[in-house]
């Protein structure tokens, strides 16, 4: 699946280049190949998401991307995008959501420990997706690019995304044919992932304890300021009752 994903990413990028080179054509004339390619890419991403090495949350983002791409391909193939005015907006939303998705993934990365080439790649692709998708809503007011020109730019960027998905996809050899060294390496990798997850869990537990202490301090302050004020007469009577002295037995000057 790794090679297939990378090939499909290259195909999508080439489709973007072809769309840019033939920007004068209408979307209807290119709808069928666009729909077929998007549908196939969506299927391959949905199948290959289990082969990724990231944690469950990151893998599910790939599945969401695959489902979105597949649905968009089906919409194009069924002829639901017939108006050229709606096409840039739909594909712009697709690109912008992809950019937001990658930006969300970046927020879960420990920048101090994982700020590497892969991190910068994700940042650049996320920003390009978001800016390109956002631009489609203001195209008429700015450069007024043709429909296929905008789609070509979006396809090139999304093709890079698919190539990255294929690059991150690993081939999982069955345990029966794995060597002892491969099994040991896999166990060490899982142990490292467990340690990283435990580290994150410890940080979350510390933040939760800190939040509990803050709430308790706020509660004590709230109780102090909201303690009912007892009138002097009631306070005196309560004190006398606790001491077993009745008010009538007190001398007149003490009353």
Descriptors:
255 residues; mainly alpha; 9 helices; 74% helix; 0% strand
What's the quick description here?
The chain is mostly helical and 255 residues long.
Can you walk through the features of this model?
This protein has 255 residues and is mainly α. Helix content is 74%, strand content 0%. The protein contains 9 helices and no strands. The longest helix has 46 residues, at 180-225. The radius of gyration is 32 Å and the shape is globular. The termini are far apart. 24% of the residues are buried.
Measured between the Cα atoms of the first and last residue, the distance is 94 Å
Number-wise, the strands total 0
Oligomer: single chain
**What's the average pLDDT?**
77
Give the amount of beta strand, in percent: under 5%
> Low-confidence segments, ≥5 residues, pLDDT <50?
none
Rg, rounded, reads: 32 Å
Shape: globular
Number of helices: 9
Order of helices and strands: HHHHHHHHH
Q: Could you say which structural class the secondary elements and strand pairing correspond to?
A: mainly alpha
Helix content: over 70%
Largest sheet: none
